[in-house]
Design a protein that fits this description.
39% strand; alpha+beta; 4-stranded antiparallel beta sheet; 2 helices
Length: 74
């Protein structure tokens, strides 16, 4: 999902609502959104990968993309 898609979805909701994140695709626990950050994402598959800090381009290699990361409380 792109940021513009998330903004479009969120604009339809009450801005006073909290954001709760699922731990995984099966809904095996939930946590409030604590914050956001940016990073470099390297996909391992279509559903998983590794995030590096912006200053870790060498460690990330050549196949990264800059992303926004949503961080849960837990």
């Amino acid at each position: 999902m792109k940021i513009k898609d998330l903004i479009e979805l969120l604009n339809k909701e009450d801005p006073e609502m909290n954001i709760i994140m699922s731990k995984d695709g099966e809904g095996n626990d939930y946590s409030p959104l604590a914050g956001i950050g940016d990073g470099l994402y390297v996909a391992d598959s279509t559903w998983s990968g590794t995030v590096y800090n912006l200053d870790e381009k060498d460690e990330a290699g050549e196949n990264f993309e800059k992303v926004i990361v949503l961080w849960p409380t837990n």
